[in-house]
TrEMBL record:
Pathway assigned to this chain's UniProt record: Carbohydrate acid metabolism; 2-dehydro-3-deoxy-D-gluconate degradation; D-glyceraldehyde 3-phosphate and pyruvate from 2-dehydro-3-deoxy-D-gluconate: step 2/2
CDD domains: KDPG_aldolase
Keyword field: Carbohydrate metabolism, Lyase, Schiff base
UniProt keyword Lyase, yes or no: yes
Enzyme Commission number: 4.1.2.14
Protein name: 2-dehydro-3-deoxy-phosphogluconate aldolase
Catalytic activity as recorded in UniProt: 2-dehydro-3-deoxy-6-phospho-D-gluconate = D-glyceraldehyde 3-phosphate + pyruvate
Gene: eda
Subunit structure: Homotrimer.
């Protein structure tokens, strides 16, 4: 069913409030998707973003959608075709590096809540004008990091963000301590070497550490 901007923002706020970190995942092998999701969920990170950057991404979303307690979304949405494919695969929210009217319209038509990227005041204001008050701040570090995001909060206190791009254990608390940040996106909780080795216990441990970042 179609979705309004207000409802999309409400649902994304709910997803972002589940844990301080949303794992940003680049899945190369779909057979690793389910155990990877299970490890992250067990570690306290239930909201998962699978980026549409590999041929295995859609199959990975399908597998992760079946994991109890998990909320899987599709990242790197760029076109309406991406939106439709992600929704069909089982994604419950979408994430994009930026936003176009065409992409926003497709997400609303498909009923897929969009967490759209914005890096400037003008981009954030444009999304706010369309009814979106929950956004992704991307690329976070390259756009000025936590100080830049804090500065945006002055004139735009009604917008909340999920900073992504360069967020790491060393700077995550800087972002999470801001009043306009609900969560942050990070890839360090699922390092490629641990995924290839099937070190699900190691990934669960990283997730547990990340889940405590906002305590």
């Amino acid at each position: 069913m179609p979705i309004t901007a207000a409802e999309a923002s409400r649902r994304n706020r709910e997803v972002c409030a589940l844990a301080p970190i949303v794992p940003v995942l680049v899945v190369e092998d779909a057979t690793t998707a389910r155990p990877l999701a299970e490890a992250l969920v067990a570690g306290g990170l239930p909201a998962l973003e699978v980026t549409l950057r590999t041929p295995a991404a859609l199959d990975a979303i399908k597998a992760m959608a079946e994991v109890p307690g998990g909320r899987v979304g599709a990242g790197t949405l760029v076109t309406p075709d991406d939106v439709r494919a992600a929704k069909e695969a089982g994604a419950t929210f979408g994430v994009s590096p930026g936003a176009t009217d065409e992409l926003i319209d497709a997400c609303e038509a498909e009923g897929l809540p969009l967490l759209a990227g914005a890096a400037t005041a003008s981009e954030a204001m444009r999304m706010l004008a369309r009814g979106y008050d929950m956004l992704k701040f991307f690329p976070a570090e390259a756009s000025g990091g936590a100080p830049a995001l804090k500065a945006l909060g002055g004139p735009l206190p009604q917008i909340s963000f999920c900073p992504t791009g360069g967020v790491s254990p060393s700077n995550a608390r800087d972002y999470l301590g801001l009043s306009n940040v609900i969560c942050a996106g990070g890839s360090w909780v699922a390092p490629a070497d641990k995924v290839r080795a099937g070190d699900w216990a190691g990934i669960e441990a990283l997730a547990r550490e990340a889940a405590k970042l906002k305590e």
